[in-house]
């Protein structure tokens, strides 16, 4: 069977897949807690060893995941609560963010809704670097404001330039203290689609989740600390089939094979036997089997909700408000 990994940008999914198959991994610490008032579940994954980095396929560093059941719902008051939690966790990654000159890069293609998160966040930011350059940081105009600049560099198919190359030039010329990269991600589970926010201080590899990995954007490559924020907006078609199969396996014990006549009972017994033969595989192996069985045209298919336009706009405001509120005390 051809070797494929389950495509995911989420460190928590990689950690869960590994722990289910291999148990605890030295050098990987996981903390979890939940706010009962908002039902926002926070998971902090810290990879502190080369062994953990290699096993999970994620760079050493901190990964914070917010599981938000209603993230894709148009409830303004609830999104304010999400913004508050997002600010709290971002401040853990960058405690002195208000004192830093921040450059925000909105990665992705604004012409494609599932990939437009980064550019939309950049559009909604309150940009102040030009004001700081003009009036200074202690003037009446800029009092209480942080220093934010932003750009949406597009994708290489539009510009012919690697995103990292654009950011390297911008960082060199504008000299920010911190780079925040915002990008859409890929998930391996339908339950996390548009319901999870990931933050990390390890940077990002644009396109990695959909098998189109570009050059990484991190502190080593750009020379300043990098925080990456992302939301999974697409999922591999094979992962959807795999999730469906797992749900089917979970309900098989409730099927009464003796009901509704002998012929139907025999069909159910045959179907159950076929499913139970698949049940011996773990999650990763079942995923590989699904990819093997799918038509070649479907192997590189990624799926997103039909109302993605509305969802991506709402989520972009949630992230931009968190960055605005963290950096600016005067608004």
From TrEMBL:
GO biological process annotation, one example: proteolysis
Q: Carries keyword Protease? A: yes
Pfam families assigned to the protein according to its UniProt record, in alphabetical order? Peptidase_A25
GO MF entry, a single one: peptidase activity
Which keywords does this chain's UniProt record carry? Hydrolase, Protease, Zymogen
The answer to whether keyword Isomerase applies is no
Q: What is its EC number?
A: 3.4.24.78
Give the HAMAP family listed for this entry. Germination_prot
Know the name of this protein?
GPR endopeptidase
